[in-house]
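Run: sequence + glutathione -> complex structure.
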Amino acid sequence: MRFYDYQHAPSPRRVRMFIREKGVNIPTVEVDLREKAQYETAFERKNPRCTVPVLELDDGEFIWETLAICEYLEARYPDPPLMGSSPEQRARVVMWYQRIVEDGFMAVSESYRNFVKGFSGHALIGPTGYPQIADLVERGRVRTQVFFDDLNTHLTGREFIVDEVFTLADIAALATVDFAKAIKMEIAHNQDDLKRWHQSVSARPSAKT
Ligand SMILES: N[C@@H](CCC(=O)N[C@@H](CS)C(=O)NCC(=O)O)C(=O)O
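>> structure
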């Protein structure tokens, strides 16, 4: 197997953490997004969406999309479970993962990609060029604020996002909260439960990757 990564990007960080939590060793290839290596023909052949993370399997197949990669790794390396230990818990993990991506990650991304000069003409991922829309910078920030508030409320009286166990949902939320620093948004002083959770999951060795 081979893992296509980019150290500074939040999406591959989710897979990096997942791999580290599983305790497996997968050779990694760095795809330099700053140098636009994702648009090179050789990489586009691996992933037509031109994004990382990508996992190359031993038979040469390429799996892209964080959730698909994590599903695959969970099936191959079931211990420790990071996507639930029962059908119901698994559904809760995917449910929360999806919500975190749609309401949190996409909100931060909306603000960031419509602001940063380097994304000019590439406000959305993928090989098709889309222009930046200035109004989305603020809308993304408002959406991020709502997401932080909702997550803070959900974490009241809870150690982790799903039940009492660390899962992919926590990984996705940590990557999102840390990504929000790129749009200068931090956990607010009154979001105590989000702060407590963030301190606890950030202390895991996998979070240092
Ligand atoms: N839905 C995809 C999103 C992947 C994604 O957005 N990756 C970003 C890095 S965080 C990327 O590769 N961007 C390339 C670009 O901006 O052109 C997943 O979960 O894997």
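>> summary
The domain at 87-208 is CATH 1.20.1050.10 (Glutathione S-transferase Yfyf (Class Pi); Chain A, domain 2). The chain has a mean pLDDT of 97.
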